[in-house]
Amino acid sequence: xxxxxxxxxxxxxxxxxxxxxxxxxxxxxxxxxxxxxxxxxxxxxxxxxxxxxxxxxxxxxxxxxxxxxxxxxxxxxxxxxxxxxxxxxxxxxxxxxxxxxxxxxxxxxxxxxxxxxxxxxxxxxxxxxxxxxxxxxxxxxxxxxxxxxxxxxxxxxxxxxxxxx
Length: 165
Ligand SMILES: [Zn+2]
What we know:
Layout: E1 5-7, E2 10-12, E3 21-25, E4 32-34, E5 40-44, E6 47-50, E7 77-79, E8 87-93, E9 98-104, E10 112-118, E11 131-134, E12 147-151, E13 154-157
Antiparallel strand pairs: 1-2, 3-8, 4-5, 4-7, 5-6, 8-9, 9-10, 10-11, 12-13
């Protein structure tokens, strides 16, 4: 068996052994940033502020033009892309003849996992030698995060009643 790792299409050096786990980890300092000044934003009692405590945006543009009396204004928040993702990984296991993709969005110690494996040829039953896929599902015991089915193959992650952060 030969395996290679590609990063943005470029082969990355790996040891002579087939890699068992390849992972990408993300760390967002903040869930929101300002469209105007680009600073990470945090919630305070006075509203959204930069990490250094600036509630007014240095790049605020008055809605009624540069001659406006309003010189100070708030930050313009937007979500930081991928700030919901802790990590993603591919794990191959020759002993199980399986490949697992994992994506962590909740507790960083866990992840949603999607596994395809081949049922051993010498196992009993019709599935011998067939490929099977395991995915997260609604009502799973000890889920990474609760799921609610929207339609086949598509799930809402987390409680549908939770307030949007
Ligand atoms: Zn700003």
